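Each lists chain and fold; for instance:
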Amino acid sequence: MAHTIGFKKPHQILVVDDDADIRESLRELFESKDYEVITACNGKDALGLLVHNKPSLILLDLRMPVMDGWEFCKSQQSDPALSDIPVFIFCAGHKAEARPADVEPVGMLNKPIDISELLNSISPYLQ
Protein backbone atom coordinates (compact mmCIF):
# COMPACT_ATOMS: atom_id res chain seq x y z
CA MET A 1 0.00 0.00 0.00
CA ALA A 2 1.44 3.38 -1.03
CA HIS A 3 1.65 6.14 1.52
CA THR A 4 1.26 9.74 0.56
CA ILE A 5 3.33 12.26 2.38
CA GLY A 6 1.79 15.65 2.95
CA PHE A 7 3.76 18.69 1.90
CA LYS A 8 3.45 22.40 2.41
CA LYS A 9 3.11 24.42 -0.74
CA PRO A 10 6.08 26.72 -1.16
CA HIS A 11 4.25 30.05 -1.10
CA GLN A 12 0.96 31.35 0.19
CA ILE A 13 -0.82 34.27 -1.49
CA LEU A 14 -3.54 36.34 0.16
CA VAL A 15 -6.07 37.73 -2.34
CA VAL A 16 -8.21 40.57 -0.94
CA ASP A 17 -11.05 41.73 -3.17
CA ASP A 18 -14.76 42.27 -2.63
CA ASP A 19 -15.54 40.79 -6.05
CA ALA A 20 -16.10 37.05 -5.56
CA ASP A 21 -15.46 36.29 -9.25
CA ILE A 22 -12.03 37.95 -9.12
CA ARG A 23 -11.14 36.14 -5.88
CA GLU A 24 -12.10 32.77 -7.33
CA SER A 25 -10.42 33.38 -10.68
CA LEU A 26 -7.18 34.33 -8.95
CA ARG A 27 -7.49 31.37 -6.59
CA GLU A 28 -7.83 28.99 -9.55
CA LEU A 29 -4.92 30.65 -11.38
CA PHE A 30 -2.53 30.47 -8.44
CA GLU A 31 -3.55 27.01 -7.32
CA SER A 32 -2.87 25.79 -10.87
CA LYS A 33 0.67 27.14 -10.36
CA ASP A 34 0.88 25.19 -7.07
CA TYR A 35 0.57 28.16 -4.72
CA GLU A 36 -1.58 28.06 -1.61
CA VAL A 37 -4.26 30.75 -1.72
CA ILE A 38 -6.31 32.34 1.03
CA THR A 39 -8.90 35.01 0.32
CA ALA A 40 -10.73 37.82 2.07
CA CYS A 41 -13.52 40.11 0.87
CA ASN A 42 -12.29 43.26 2.66
CA GLY A 43 -9.34 44.67 4.56
CA LYS A 44 -10.74 43.90 8.01
CA ASP A 45 -11.19 40.20 7.19
CA ALA A 46 -7.71 40.15 5.65
CA LEU A 47 -6.14 41.53 8.84
CA GLY A 48 -7.97 38.79 10.75
CA LEU A 49 -6.45 36.15 8.48
CA LEU A 50 -2.97 37.55 9.10
CA VAL A 51 -3.25 36.62 12.78
CA HIS A 52 -2.66 32.95 11.85
CA ASN A 53 -1.14 33.22 8.36
CA LYS A 54 1.93 34.96 6.98
CA PRO A 55 1.61 34.84 3.21
CA SER A 56 4.51 35.43 0.86
CA LEU A 57 2.49 38.08 -0.97
CA ILE A 58 -0.75 40.05 -0.67
CA LEU A 59 -2.81 41.02 -3.72
CA LEU A 60 -5.13 43.83 -2.67
CA ASP A 61 -8.05 45.65 -4.22
CA LEU A 62 -8.35 49.31 -3.23
CA ARG A 63 -12.08 49.86 -3.27
CA MET A 64 -13.85 47.55 -0.79
CA PRO A 65 -16.51 47.90 1.88
CA VAL A 66 -15.75 47.75 5.63
CA MET A 67 -12.02 48.53 5.24
CA ASP A 68 -10.56 49.67 1.93
CA GLY A 69 -7.13 48.83 0.57
CA TRP A 70 -5.38 51.97 1.81
CA GLU A 71 -6.68 51.45 5.36
CA PHE A 72 -5.55 47.82 5.23
CA CYS A 73 -2.06 48.85 4.04
CA LYS A 74 -1.68 51.41 6.83
CA SER A 75 -2.59 48.79 9.45
CA GLN A 76 -0.48 46.05 7.88
CA GLN A 77 2.57 48.23 7.38
CA SER A 78 2.41 49.66 10.91
CA ASP A 79 2.57 46.16 12.43
CA PRO A 80 6.20 45.00 12.70
CA ALA A 81 5.13 41.33 12.41
CA LEU A 82 3.36 42.01 9.09
CA SER A 83 5.13 44.98 7.53
CA ASP A 84 7.61 42.87 5.56
CA ILE A 85 4.88 41.12 3.53
CA PRO A 86 4.93 42.62 0.00
CA VAL A 87 1.64 44.10 -1.21
CA PHE A 88 0.53 44.49 -4.82
CA ILE A 89 -2.47 46.74 -5.32
CA PHE A 90 -5.15 46.36 -8.00
CA CYS A 91 -6.77 49.61 -8.97
CA ALA A 92 -8.54 51.59 -11.59
CA GLY A 93 -5.82 54.02 -12.74
CA HIS A 94 -7.15 57.17 -11.10
CA LYS A 95 -7.61 55.51 -7.69
CA ALA A 96 -3.84 55.10 -7.27
CA GLU A 97 -3.37 58.86 -7.17
CA ALA A 98 -4.98 59.01 -3.71
CA ARG A 99 -2.19 56.92 -2.13
CA PRO A 100 -1.38 58.09 1.39
CA ALA A 101 2.26 59.18 1.75
CA ASP A 102 2.96 56.57 4.46
CA VAL A 103 1.80 53.57 2.41
CA GLU A 104 4.32 51.77 0.20
CA PRO A 105 3.00 48.91 -1.96
CA VAL A 106 5.67 47.05 -3.91
CA GLY A 107 3.59 47.34 -7.06
CA MET A 108 0.33 48.49 -8.59
CA LEU A 109 -1.58 46.82 -11.38
CA ASN A 110 -4.52 48.28 -13.26
CA LYS A 111 -7.89 46.60 -13.54
CA PRO A 112 -8.88 44.76 -15.57
CA ILE A 113 -6.00 42.54 -14.57
CA ASP A 114 -3.66 41.36 -17.31
CA ILE A 115 -2.73 37.82 -16.21
CA SER A 116 0.70 37.71 -17.87
CA GLU A 117 1.60 41.14 -16.41
CA LEU A 118 0.41 39.96 -13.00
CA LEU A 119 2.47 36.77 -13.10
CA ASN A 120 5.57 38.62 -14.31
CA SER A 121 5.20 41.33 -11.66
CA ILE A 122 4.81 39.01 -8.70
CA SER A 123 7.25 36.25 -9.69
CA PRO A 124 10.29 37.87 -8.00
CA TYR A 125 8.41 37.73 -4.68
CA LEU A 126 7.58 34.03 -5.04
CA GLN A 127 11.06 32.64 -5.77
